[in-house]
Amino acid sequence: MLITSSRPLSREPTFGPSANVPGAWLTSLAYRSRARKPQDQTSLDRLVEGSQVRNREHSITGQLTYQDQRFFQWIEGPGDQVARLWESIKQDDRHSDIEVLGNQQIPARFFGDWNMKLEINSGDFSISKPAAQAKPVLQELVKKVVIPQLVARHSGETKKLALPRAHKQVNELANLLIANDANAALQLFAEIHSQVPLLDQFYLTVIEPTARALGDFWMAEGTEVAITAALCRLQTAVRSIGSISPWQGASDGSMKAVLVAPQPGEIHMLGAVLDDDLLWRAGWQTQCEFPKTDKAIQKLVANTWFDALDLSLSVAFSREQWLPRMTETIAKARIASCNPELVVVVGGRVFYEQPGLGKSVGANGSSASSVDVGDLIMRELVATTKLRH
Question: Could you give the C-alpha distances from 339 to 307, 308, 315, in angstroms and in order?
Fold first, then answer.
């Protein structure tokens, strides 16, 4: 799409395969920049309308956020098309101070058919295009929906995992991820990983606590844009250790098939990425998707046999107000599934903080950490088999 500058960038992104490579993963690129002058509604509408036409022709989807004369943009598509768009973005004189926040390969689109969605945040108002007149659903849920609270000892659900203490440099890492110095954050990330080489422990004591620290920062003083950017950096850092981390399991074909996905509408995909990585390393047959709607999940479970569905909310934010919609998502997935005994597990910060909530949304159980997901799924699969016999 659009906004750019010729100023030097902190680092140049790399791009994946072109649209002509069958089955190739897509490229996802996130960046932020500063508008050279304040943008009014007319200018922003004109900006988005032009980009929507262009992006539709080149299979580009994504989201643009404008706040306090700052742009944050997330684009996705075939590698060659994203690379071509990126060259255009760098030459656009409507903005400056461009910073790449994240650049990675993804198996599926998150933004679906959004050729470009615009969100404007300023002071007391927030406008979303296209959907400016949409009812503020989240606010209504917060006001009117009473989240069911279950006592864990009566639910039969697994008790909260006894997690080890977070690494002493977690807050330092979170601060660097929020700051502009991405290179310093990646360097510290690598240093801590050398101190904690075991992947399970690294996830438990570093990655997940850092995500929660970012969420705490947002609740205290941050903005959604800043924290989303920081989480994007953290996700990129996690991907950087994938190639050097040892295989921790062996797949002999006996492990079950698991669909791993964030709750539709969840823009923070870190939880799903962590779950997918650990399950895959343990030998599970995983398929990680980023569905935009409940219907997309229903289509997946209707057309492909999955033994389990691992559905996640943000690792950083509590998301209690999202539980009613997750309940609906799970109910619809069970009805649509070609597996009548589909096991559903859920995860995210809200389930870390309130381990009894899993059954309240219709799941078989909830996990306190990505490290616990594999064991949880296996326990529930065994329990389902025992009930059948």
Answer: 7, 9, 28
The sign of the CA dihedral 160, 164, 168, 170 is: negative
pLDDT number for residue 75: 86
Three-state SS letters, 63-80: EEEEECCEEEEEEEECHH
**Alpha helices (runs of H) in 196-340, residue ranges in sequence order:** 199-202, 208-220, 224-240, 270-281, 294-303, 323-336
Pairing of strands 95-106, 343-347: unpaired
CA–CA gap between residue 364 and residue 378 (Å, rounded): 11
Express as a percent the part of the chain with pLDDT over 90. 23
Q: 249 — alpha (psi -120 to 50), left (phi > 0) or beta? A: beta
**Secondary structure (3-state) at 215:** helix
> In a 3-state reduction of DSSP, which class is residue 348?
coil
Q: Is the peptide bond before 107 cis (omega within 30 degrees of 0)?
A: no
Q: Is the pLDDT of residue 9 over 50?
A: no
Those residues whose C-beta lies under 8 Å from the C-beta of residue 381, and which sit 6 or more positions away, are 256, 307, 308, 343
Interior angle at CA 274, CA 270 and CA 279, nearest 5: 150
Pair of tokens at residue 364: 């078989």
Q: What's the pTM value of the predicted model, to 2 decimals?
A: 0.59
What DSSP character marks residue 8?
A: P
Q: What is the pLDDT of residues 203-245, one digit of tens each?
A: 888 999 988 888 887 766 656 677 788 888 888 888 777 544 4
CA distance 18 to 52: 20
Name residue 308's beta-bridge partners.
Answer: 258, 343
